[in-house]
């Protein structure tokens, strides 16, 4: 879009990795690493809001491994998509806090 070079291999959850168990485990590790690293920059009693299409129910594991808890989940419909596949789906906004 802006002429940036693609770096799909650096993306967490890149489509080229597929959706199998190895790809899911790689995604979990990537998100846990990001959340764990970000803690050093957060104040006590922080709030984190993550938006995800969690069709494989990975975020309870991600929260646990990140030593966080899911306080609440907000479902929101995604009606207008720009990428391939125009069907609507729901994504979840996860509200995370420290344990």
Describe this structure in words.
- This protein has 99 residues and is α+β, with helices and mostly antiparallel strands.
- It has one domain.
- It has two helices and three strands; from the N terminus they run αβαββ.
- The chain has helices at residues 21-38, 59-65; strands at 48-52, 68-78, 89-98.
- The chain has a three-stranded antiparallel sheet with strand order 1-3-2, with helices on one face.
- Helix 1 (21-38) crosses helix 2 (59-65).
- The radius of gyration is 15 Å and the shape is globular.
Count structural domains: 1
Strand order of the largest sheet: 1-3-2
Shape: globular
- Our measurement of the CA-to-CA distance between the termini, rounded to an integer number of angstroms, reads 40 Å
Distinct helical segment count? 2
Estimate what percentage of residues fall within beta strands.
25-35%
Oligomer: single chain
The average pLDDT value, as a whole number, equals: 92
Helical content band: 25-40%
| Number of strand segments | 3
Identify low-pLDDT runs. Answer: none
SSE class:
alpha+beta
- How many strands, what sense, and barrel or not for the largest sheet? 3 strands, antiparallel
Based on CA atoms alone, the radius of gyration comes out at 15 Å
- H/E topology pattern: HEHEE
């Amino acid at each position: 879009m802006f002429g940036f070079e693609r770096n799909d291999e650096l993306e967490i959850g890149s489509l080229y990795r597929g959706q199998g168990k190895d790809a899911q485990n790689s995604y979990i590790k990537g998100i846990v690493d990001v959340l764990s690293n970000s803690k050093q920059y957060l104040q006590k009693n922080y709030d984190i809001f993550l938006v995800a299409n969690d069709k494989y129910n990975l975020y309870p594991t991600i929260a646990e491994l990140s030593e966080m808890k899911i306080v609440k989940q907000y479902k929101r419909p995604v009606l207008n998509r720009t990428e391939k596949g125009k069907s609507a789906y729901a994504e979840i906004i996860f509200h995370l806090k420290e344990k």
